[in-house]
TrEMBL record:
Belongs to the sulfotransferase 1 family. The lineage of its organism: Eukaryota, Metazoa, Chordata, Craniata, Vertebrata. One of its GO terms (biological process) is xenobiotic metabolic process. It is found in: Cytoplasm. The keyword Iron does not apply. GO terms for cellular component: cytoplasm. One of its GO terms (molecular function) is sulfotransferase activity. Pfam families: Sulfotransfer_1 (PF00685). This is Sulfotransferase. Its EC number is 2.8.2.-. Its main location: cytoplasm. Keywords: Catecholamine metabolism, Cytoplasm, Transferase.
Amino acid sequence: MDSTLRPELFDFHGVMMTHFFTDNWNNYQNFQARPDDILIATYPKAGTTWVSYILDLLYFGQTSTDRNKSIPIYERVPFLEIDIPGLDKGKDLADNLTTSPRLIKTHLPVQFVPKSFWEQNCRIVYVARNAKDNMVSFYHFDRMSKLQPESGEWSSFFQRFLDGKMLFGSWYDHVNGWWKKKETYSKLHYMFYEDLVENTGGEIAKLCSFLGKSASTGEIETLSGSVQFDNMKKDKMANYSTFPEMDAKISPFMRKGKVGDWKNHFTVAQNKAFDEDYKKKMTDPTLQFRTEI
Ligand code: PPS
């Protein structure tokens, strides 16, 4: 795809989107969820692939090793709302999954989630990442993925992130909207990228408990080892090197996998402006992020 075909952002019911995620809107809004479906929901670049991979290995890692070797993660865990000409629509991939449970990825803000997931009382895992690192990861992704709007210069990207004019909307609205949903929907497990980096095994144990899955300490340790950044980075089925339209030479999908890389991007002035703006937008004291560990 030619870079001139990069999609434009536009306001869609109050959220900035590109047509790749709205063209199939009516169809995916009618997605028929099953009670055992598991939805993995995130703001882009918050750790979707990591948690998708963990869940996939938890459910299917031991029974089907061929799956790990031959099916890319984006087919094992379809991206519900994606609709790119020439590629299978995420909704169709999800409909055609033969696994049980079906693992499904979404970046939709909570108010856009198809109603069937709520009606079927599906388990949902939401992963959130601190805004500063999330922003940096998003910037490099927009540079390397031709399916994304142009990143532009870092300084303009920085401002656009603060203004909430990003694909899938404002980070602030996304993490807050999903956090609030926990109050009324009990089958939502809200987890943080930083905790996963700090204590992968502990977070996997919490996931198992949420999913009602038993796993021994040894199994959790083995799984935790398999999903460390360096292992996933070299795994072609996890690192998106097989995905068309992404140029790992510009920036690899598995880029750094760290907490605190924002310090290599933010100027002192940007950091100050960010912190002041953050305080105004993030007023719920129960939702706290760590920008270093
Ligand atoms: S996407 O495109 O929205 O699905 O991207 P997503 O998978 O949510 O986020 C990509 C970032 O997650 C990092 N990542 C990991 N970090 C630590 N350990 C593991 N195993 C891991 N797997 C993926 C990935 O490197 C991206 O972050 P950055 O900061 O850009 O490196």
